[in-house]
Write a structure and sequence with these properties.
Blueprint lengths: L6 H12 L15 E6 L6 E5 L4 E6 L6 H20 L13 H14 L3 H4 L1
Parallel strand pairs: 1-3
Antiparallel strand pairs: 2-3
């Protein structure tokens, strides 16, 4: 069976992760302050965007069908959000988005949650 994604499910996954290391030390906004979007993209499993006013995390219902995958991708986008909050996120996209700063914090997340860093980047 495939996990049914809804904005409420995405928000719950985000709020759960906020209570766990290292996210619990990062001061990320509560889920109610973040816009969660379920997309149907077959190319992008997840995306993070800051429009200058609100954080948006999008996850693909076509690419994510299990809870473990959901948590991995929400955690990945939370690293981008943290870097944006700190002013360290790159604006160019592509490989620069997963630069040394991203990998440093991603490794903390992977160690705390048992995610494979090769799959996380």
């Amino acid at each position: 069976m495939t996990l049914r994604l809804t904005p409420k499910t995405l928000e719950a996954a985000y709020d759960y992760l906020r209570t766990t290391p290292p996210f619990d030390r990062w001061g990320l906004p509560p889920g109610g302050d973040v816009k969660f979007v379920v997309s149907k993209s077959i190319r992008d499993y997840a995306a993070y965007r800051w429009d200058g006013r609100r954080h948006t995390i999008s996850l693909s219902a076509k690419g994510i069908g299990h809870s473990a995958t959901l948590l991995l991708y929400v955690a990945h986008e939370m690293v981008h959000m943290y870097l944006e909050e700190k002013g360290w996120e790159t604006r160019t996209g592509g490989p620069d988005t997963h630069n040394a700063a991203f990998r440093k914090f991603a490794l903390q997340v992977c160690k705390a949650h048992g995610f494979d860093p090769k799959a996380f980047y």
